[in-house]
């Protein structure tokens, strides 16, 4: 009897498998994949060139025609890059600044997003639109006022000038989280209110656990932005011991000459944490952004 059931299941499964095999690939799909592959190669080319240049001698970098592969390979560029500058201290500065900014942004942005999404108050929509309008203001416009403010409160040449503005105000993070929170059923809040929960209890016990995918996506975006933040560090920091990794890499470029081989080696090293984060959490990035756009 069991053998007859298995045979019947196999016979029923064969047409389904054959139908999948016989499914034709549309020409438009082939063209689309070719275009996407070509675009991916173009996007990854600068990074591959950076890695290749990090293994070359300075005389090979600007050869015409260009030398695609280093000959000979100079692994010593990485050692020289790490020993020429205090990369260990710069890595620590970038790591702890980024960690504080990410954690603080997730807290403040999620609280603001919850208020805009679920708490009804007068002028909420107008205030949210005004909040989003700040995303359209170029950073260069607010650079001088921000510098003056940091000078007035004594935060120039301090890591607080990199941490506080990014941690307290991130319109993109608030927008992303708000769209996700709006999709949470209102019945969950009503049940919590009946049980005597207040706004903070609802936010902490109900909202936060349900928006973990979106929090992961926002955290990764904030991590990438803070880790690669060169402009703010260049403006606010002066002491070499307080430099972050992007700013320290800039010191390889002198007034009259630049050690491009060591700079490329240092750049490759600085990209490693970003690659690790993306490879490990790419599923959360896609899931968070995709779910956020679904109502």
From TrEMBL:
<feature type="transmembrane region" description="Helical">
    <location>
        <begin position="162"/>
        <end position="181"/>
    </location>
</feature>
<protein>
    <submittedName>
        <fullName>Sugar ABC transporter permease</fullName>
    </submittedName>
</protein>
<keyword id="KW-0813">Transport</keyword>
<feature type="transmembrane region" description="Helical">
    <location>
        <begin position="30"/>
        <end position="49"/>
    </location>
</feature>
<feature type="transmembrane region" description="Helical">
    <location>
        <begin position="124"/>
        <end position="150"/>
    </location>
</feature>
<keyword id="KW-1003">Cell membrane</keyword>
<keyword id="KW-0472">Membrane</keyword>
<dbReference type="Pfam" id="PF00528">
    <property type="entry name" value="BPD_transp_1"/>
</dbReference>
<feature type="transmembrane region" description="Helical">
    <location>
        <begin position="260"/>
        <end position="281"/>
    </location>
</feature>
<dbReference type="GO" id="GO:0005886">
    <property type="term" value="C:plasma membrane"/>
</dbReference>
<dbReference type="InterPro" id="IPR000515">
    <property type="entry name" value="MetI-like"/>
</dbReference>
<feature type="domain" description="ABC transmembrane type-1">
    <location>
        <begin position="91"/>
        <end position="281"/>
    </location>
</feature>
<keyword id="KW-0812">Transmembrane</keyword>
<dbReference type="GO" id="GO:0055085">
    <property type="term" value="P:transmembrane transport"/>
</dbReference>
<keyword id="KW-1133">Transmembrane helix</keyword>
<feature type="transmembrane region" description="Helical">
    <location>
        <begin position="202"/>
        <end position="224"/>
    </location>
</feature>
<comment type="similarity">
    <text>Belongs to the binding-protein-dependent transport system permease family.</text>
</comment>
<feature type="transmembrane region" description="Helical">
    <location>
        <begin position="95"/>
        <end position="117"/>
    </location>
</feature>
<dbReference type="InterPro" id="IPR035906">
    <property type="entry name" value="MetI-like_sf"/>
</dbReference>
């Amino acid at each position: 009897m069991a053998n007859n059931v298995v045979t019947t299941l196999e016979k029923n499964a064969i047409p389904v498998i054959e139908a999948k095999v016989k499914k034709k690939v549309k020409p438009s799909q082939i063209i689309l994949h070719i275009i996407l592959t070509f675009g991916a190669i173009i996007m990854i080319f600068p990074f591959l060139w950076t890695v290749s240049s990090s293994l070359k001698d300075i005389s090979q970098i600007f050869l015409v025609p260009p030398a695609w592969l280093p000959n000979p390979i100079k692994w010593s560029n990485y050692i020289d890059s790490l020993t020429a500058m205090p990369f260990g201290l710069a890595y620590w500065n970038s790591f702890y600044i980024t960690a504080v900014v990410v954690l603080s942004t997730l807290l403040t942005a999620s609280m603001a997003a919850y208020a805009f999404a679920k708490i009804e108050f007068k002028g909420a929509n107008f205030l949210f639109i005004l909040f989003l309008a700040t995303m359209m203001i170029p950073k260069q416009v607010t650079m001088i006022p921000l510098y003056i403010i940091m000078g007035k409160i004594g935060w120039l040449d301090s890591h607080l000038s990199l941490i506080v503005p990014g941690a307290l105000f991130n319109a993109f993070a608030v927008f992303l989280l708000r769209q996700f929170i709006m999709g949470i059923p209102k019945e969950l809040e009503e049940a919590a209110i009946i049980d005597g929960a207040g706004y903070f209890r609802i936010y902490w016990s109900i909202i936060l656990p349900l928006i973990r995918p979106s929090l992961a996506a926002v955290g990764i975006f904030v991590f990438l932005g803070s880790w690669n933040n060169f402009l703010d560090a260049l403006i606010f920091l002066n002491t070499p011991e307080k430099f972050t990794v992007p700013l320290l890499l800039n010191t390889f470029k002198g007034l009259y000459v630049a050690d491009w081989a060591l700079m490329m080696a240092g750049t490759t090293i600085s990209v490693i944490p970003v690659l690790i984060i993306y490879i490990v959490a790419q599923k959360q990035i896609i899931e968070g952004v995709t779910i956020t756009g679904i109502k």
